[in-house]
Design a protein that fits this description.
The protein has 210 residues and is of the alpha+beta class. The chain contains 5 helices and 10 strands; from the N terminus they run βαααβββββααββββ. The protein has a 4-stranded mixed β-sheet, covered by helices on one side. It is globular and about 50 Å long.
Length: 210
C-alpha cells in the first residue's frame, strides 16, 4: 500500500504553521527554515515534514515528532530504522509526500510550464524525444517523461549520478542495471504532472489532501 499526501501553499496559514509545527523539529532544522528569505520556500520545506509526520501517524506507525531525517551520500532522505520508506517533492504551490511500508519509492511533481525543450533533448532517449516532439501537447508529454525519470532515480537512490538518458521509459516501466522500476501517474491537479516509481507493480494507492 502506498499513501500519498499533498497540500497547497497558503500565506494565510503560514504563521500558524510555524507556531504549531516548527518547534517539533530539531534546532538545526528550525534554523534552516527561518533562514529562507521567501515565506514560500520556508513553507514548502516545512509542509513536506508535516505531511510526512501526518502520514506516518495515519499509517499507524509511531514516530516521535523530532525524529531525525537522515540522508544517504546521494542525498536520499530516510529514517534509520527503515520501518517506512518515503519521498517528498514540491513544485509551484504543491507539496507531495509518498509513504510505503514495503518498497523504496520515488515521487516527483512539476508544474506544467513553457520550457525551452531543446535544452533537455540530451536528457531523453531517441524514442522518448520522438514521442515528445510528435505529441499534440508537447509540454504535457515532456513533463510526463521528466517526472517519470525523476521519480525513477529517486526510487533508485543514486540521484543524478545516473544520467537521465541512460534508461528509457516504456509502458510505465524501465530498467537500471537490470533492476525493474515501475511507474504510475498520480493525478492531483491538471496544472501539474506527478509520477511515482517503485521496484514492484502497483497495488493500492491512497491519495489525500491535507
Amino acid at each position: 500500500m502506498i499513501y500519498i499526501y499533498y497540500s497547497y501553499l497558503s500565506k494565510e496559514n503560514h504563521e500558524s504553521l510555524l507556531e504549531n509545527y516548527l518547534l517539533n523539529f530539531s534546532k538545526d532544522y528550525q534554523d534552516k527554515v527561518m533562514r529562507f528569505r521567501r515565506w514560500q520556500d520556508a513553507q514548502l520545506s516545512l509542509l513536506g515534514r508535516v505531511l510526512l509526520l501526518k502520514g506516518i501517524e495515519e499509517v499507524g506507525l509511531f514516530c516521535p515528532p523530532d525524529k531525525e531525517i537522515k540522508y544517504t551520500k546521494h542525498n536520499k532522505p530516510y529514517f534509520e530504522d527503515n520501518l517506512i520508506q518515503f519521498n517528498i517533492s514540491h513544485s509551484g504551490e504543491i507539496v507531495v509526500c509518498a509513504l510505503s511500508t514495503e518498497n523504496e519509492i520515488g515521487i516527483d511533481i512539476e508544474i506544467i510550464a513553457d520550457v525551452e525543450m531543446d535544452d533537455f533533448k540530451l536528457q531523453m532517449t531517441e524514442m522518448e524525444w520522438d514521442n515528445i516532439t510528435g505529441s499534440n501537447n508537447k509540454n504535457n508529454a515532456f513533463f510526463n517523461y521528466w517526472t517519470q525519470k525523476e521519480a525513477v532515480i529517486k526510487a533508485h537512490g543514486h540521484g543524478l549520478t545516473i544520467p537521465l538518458k541512460s534508461f528509457e521509459i516504456r509502458d510505465s516501466m524501465t530498467k537500471i542495471d537490470e533492476e525493474k522500476f515501475y511507474l504510475k501517474e498520480i493525478k492531483i491537479d491538471e496544472k501539474y504532472k506527478c509520477n511515482i516509481s517503485q521496484k514492484a507493480n502497483f497495488d493500492k494507492i491512497s491519495i489525500k489532501k491535507i
